[in-house]
Amino acid sequence: MNARLLVRAAGPGVTVQDPGRFGHSRFGVTPAGPMDKAAFLAATRAVDAAAAIEVSLGGATFEAGGATLMVALAGGAFDIRLDGEKLPVACVTPLPPGSRLSVRAGASGAWCYLAVGARFELARALGSFATHARSGIGPKPLAAGDALPLSHIADPPCEVRALHAPALARDDAPIRVMLGPQDDYFSPEAIAAFLSAEWRVGARSDRMAYALEGPRLAHSRGHDIVSDGAAMGAVQIPGSGAPFVLMADRQPTGGYPKIACVIGADLGRLAQLRPGERLRFRAVSWEEAVAARRALETATAAEADLPPLAAGLSSEALLATNLVSGVVSARD
């Protein structure tokens, strides 16, 4: 079976991503990987996929070739349509040959993930499918006319099903950060300004970093440090005083002081902000950051164990479903 996923249209920034290319930063190789890990996991775990296609605000359109495919989508509140019919923003759907699946920017969010119940037959670079466009490592960004070969095709569902995706819930709460590791390069007044200001995501934001617009933060000990490792979510303050947050395609090391780092549990919320949208920061303790990360991991793992939720529940569907996992006796 010559199955493949056909790309009929693609805006900028449509790439293949897996969890990332780790273990090579000491050689100057960026991990890449998804901008919103929770959304990526929601899509890939729903169809048991190792990789997904990350779609940016420019959107994309796909078609199945050679076989009906099972695909899952999750991410921002994108406008997802199958042959013009609107689908849930997080769902599993069959994609028959000849049908068009369009993924377009919707009410909110900056990234959407499309996973296929199959194996991408693509060359791995340093053991990973993750695309890092700036360095040319991994598959090239997708464009109209591309065809991704597939194998190990899973049986597609009979109908569209909405996904349980509690980890995808978004809110307007402040983005939580841990101060440091170079917060001692800033005065208490500068740190207070960083935490109290309303920031705006700048137009120059991309997969490498989100530029923030707001007050200028002055350094008290200069704006150069000995280059050290750069984690996703690190908030660097260059000489201009304008912060930027390092993202999935960040450089492996950096020489600007880092006033704070976004905690892992909030990286997806930050990544899903569009240019022009506003945010605030709140400093938290190590214990709160760890608890938030554990809660997110627990919710994401639970999603993988839950069957997809039917898009339209009926009495017949509920009566036909085993809603009891077992029974106990009061005599035991």
Summarize the structure.
This protein has 332 residues and is α+β, with helices and mostly antiparallel strands. Helices cover 15% and strands 31% of the residues.
Structural overview:
With 332 residues, the protein is an alpha+beta fold. The chain has 2 domains: 4-165, no CATH class; 175-290, Cyclophilin-like (Cyclophilin). 15% of the residues lie in helices and 31% in strands. It has 5 helices and 22 strands. It has helices at 37-47, 188-196, 267-271, 286-305, 315-319, and strands spanning 4-10, 15-17, 52-55, 60-65, 69-82, 85-86, 91-95, 100-116, 119-120, 147-151, 161-162, 175-179, 199-201, 209-213, 228-229, 234-236, 244-246, 253-254, 258-262, 278-279, 281-283, 309-310. A hairpin with a 7-residue loop joins strand 16 and strand 17 (244-246). It is elongated and about 60 Å long.
How many strands, which pairing sense, and closed or not: the largest β-sheet? 12 strands, antiparallel
Order of helices and strands: EEHEEEEEEEEEEHEEEEEEEHEEHEH
The end-to-end span amounts to 54 Å
Strand content: 25-35%
Mean pLDDT: 89
- Residue windows where pLDDT falls under 50 for at least 5 positions: 308-322
Query: What is the radius of gyration?
Result: 21 Å
The shape, in one word, is: elongated
Number of domains: 2
Secondary structure class reads: alpha+beta
The total beta strand count reads 22
- How many alpha or pi helices? 5
Portion of residues within helices: 10-25%
